[in-house]
Each structure stands twice: as C-alpha cells, then as structure tokens.
Amino acid sequence: MAHADRLAVVTVCEVRVGVDCERRIPATAFGDLNWALTEVEAEEVRTGSEEILTEIWTAKESAGKAAGVGLATAPRRIRTRALHPRPAPEISFRKSEIDRMEFATRGWWLDDHHISVSWSVRDLG
C-alpha cells in the first residue's frame, strides 16, 4: 500500500510486490535527494526530463518494498535504470536491483502523481 495526498494505491496478488506513489518531485529537490542516487541515476536526472527524479524515487521505494526492506536499506543500494523505448509518454519501465535480487518496475503518471509497482524477476545470487 502507498499513498500521497488524496491518492491511495493497494496491490493484491499472489506474488510479492511493492508499490509507491508520489506527487511530482520538483527538479529543485535534486540537490536534496542526490545522496540517494547512484551515479547513473544522477546523470539520468541531470540530462532527462523533470519527471525522471520522481520516476526513479518511486521505483526505488517500490522495489525496496518488494524486497521486504523498504528504504531501511540505503536507497543508493537500490539501483534502477530505464528500459527504453517508452510505450507512451506517461508510462515508464525500469529494472531495479537490490543486492542480488532483480525487480521489474512499471510506472505511470496519473495527473501530477507517479505510481510504481515492482515485482521480483529473479535472484541473481
């Protein structure tokens, strides 16, 4: 379960998933969140659209929840990368990794909020 403002998201399924939703994070917050980003993610934020920071953050949170650790682990340990091409401007696909676990993450925009759902793909160990 996740919520932001008046939006709530709940997943019900037979496999372990994580979900997160956030209001659009302004680009000016990049400096405040840079500590949580990998070098690759930081470069993606610097060169991408304003929405990228929110998409990365929700992917990190949903993958952390799917792994059962949330953001209790250092957020930088949750590595995400975009998978291209995007099927539509409002839809994103990312691959996330935490330690030796790989997650698929699908995200989409609903008005000014981004929702990400992550599920385990495989154990890389």
From TrEMBL:
UniProt keyword terms in alphabetical order: Transferase
State the InterPro entries in the record: 4-PPantetheinyl_Trfase_dom (IPR008278), 4-PPantetheinyl_Trfase_dom_sf (IPR037143)
Q: What is this protein called?
A: 4'-phosphopantetheinyl transferase superfamily protein
Q: Record's Pfam families? A: ACPS
- Which terms does the record give in the GO molecular function aspect? transferase activity
Source taxon at top rank: Bacteria
Q: Which residues form the 4'-phosphopantetheinyl transferase domain?
A: 16-99
